[in-house]
Design goal:
This protein is of the alpha/beta class. It has helices at 23-40, 59-71, 86-95, 111-119, 148-165, 184-197, 211-214, 216-220, 236-244, and strands at 2-5, 12-21, 44-57, 76-83, 102-106, 127-132, 137-142, 168-174, 201-207, 227-231. 40% of the residues lie in helices and 29% in strands.
């Protein structure tokens, strides 16, 4: 059976497996618990404890586990698995890299450490941004490698505006050099943000001194609907004036 834990922060889903886990446990307990958590949070965290009394999975449960894993692969920013079961520990260490978020395995005696890690306050992020609602312009400036939490915060600010306005006149990105991504989860979140929003943006201004970044407009037009131009850092005002000229309804 699977037990849902109730003594964790709201963004953390805690599960404890007892005895033999069946497909019915997934359908009746695990799946509803995940879906409920994701109605409250765009990204959640998972603490999964398989203790001394865990006996394994039925064949049906293994299939349900695979389906749940594929469906929610990108929904968890952190996963902590607490177990002394050798084959599970080896499997997670071997294949945990395919999960975009952070994954750690803890031994049973390190449960307190796992709880602390999974409950840590999310990083404040490294992407500064400002939404100029009257102009319909979003200004973004990275200050270090981008994190998955950056795009969660960005969506939380931009999506309500788009729900009412329907479109952003433009986006101005100021970056002397592109800093890259903190991990695979950040890259995945960035790509998802672009995929979900690029049709709602008229213009994108890249303000940079990075020659590689400044070449993006040459090929990006093949993948996004927005008009894209690059500007040198000393032309921020011109870039803002240009990108603001894209406001208005589609």
């Amino acid at each position: 059976m699977i037990e849902v834990m109730t003594d964790l922060p709201d963004r953390v889903l805690g599960l404890r497996a007892h005895g033999e886990v069946s497909a019915q446990d997934y359908k009746a307990v695990l799946v509803p618990a995940i879906e409920e958590k994701l109605t409250k949070h765009k990204k959640a965290r998972l603490l999964y404890i398989l203790g001394d009394d865990f006996e394994g999975y039925t064949s049906g449960a293994a299939w349900e586990d695979a389906k749940v894993g594929m469906k929610h692969l990108t929904d968890f920013e952190r996963v902590a698995v607490v177990t002394d079961v050798d084959w599970i520990e080896k499997m997670i260490k071997a294949f945990g890299f395919v999960i975009p978020g952070e994954v750690r395995v803890f031994e049973d005696d390190d449960l307190d450490e796992a709880r602390l890690w999974i409950s840590e306050t999310p990083s404040p992020g490294r992407l500064a941004f400002e939404l100029l609602e009257e102009q319909g312009v979003l200004i973004m400036q990275p200050h270090g490698e981008l994190e998955a939490a950056d795009f969660e915060r960005l969506s939380a600010r931009v999506d309500p505006y788009l729900a009412e306005a329907g479109v952003l006149g433009g986006v101005m990105i100021i970056a002397e050099h592109f800093p890259g991504w903190d991990d695979l989860a950040a890259l995945s979140s960035h790509l998802r943000f672009v995929r979900e929003h690029h049709r709602k943006i008229r213009r994108v201004a890249l303000v940079t001194s990075d020659r590689l970044v400044s070449t993006i407009p040459r090929f990006a037009s093949h993948f996004v609907d927005a008009e894209i131009r690059s500007f040198p850092l000393q032309q921020r005002d011109e870039a803002l004036l240009w990108v603001g000229g894209g406001s208005g309804a589609i």
